[in-house]
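Methods, example record. To illustrate the input and output format used throughout this study, we show the complete record for FCGR3 protein. The sequence lines were provided to the predictor; the line carrying structure tokens was produced by it.
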Amino acid sequence: AGSQPSQLTLDPPWTPVFTPEKVMLTCRGSGAPGPTKWYIDQQLQQQITSSYIYVSKNYLGSGSYQCCSPGAELSPPITLRFSNDWLVLQVPARVLLEGDTVPLRCRA
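The corresponding predicted structure is encoded as:
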């Protein structure tokens, strides 16, 4: 049996993100010591000791994020998009399956 994939979560868990806001991405894995690798659009961006990063429109920005915690495999992606529209319909930034109830959030 191979190692399990890293788990990547978004807080707050909604997308798209309003342009002035920032979100926190957290990477969880096996708990082994060592740096966490962060990828944007399948390109290694940074390798840091922290298991979380903050993302805003001006820092790292839009893209498909993945992480790899020590002792675990690459996480499934979370796609972040920033919007400066005056009205935004937000959906959960998680995998949805057919038959799932989908909460929606309207922000102005």
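Annotations derived from this record:
The domain at 7-107 is CATH 2.60.40.10 (Immunoglobulin-like).
The mean pLDDT is 91.
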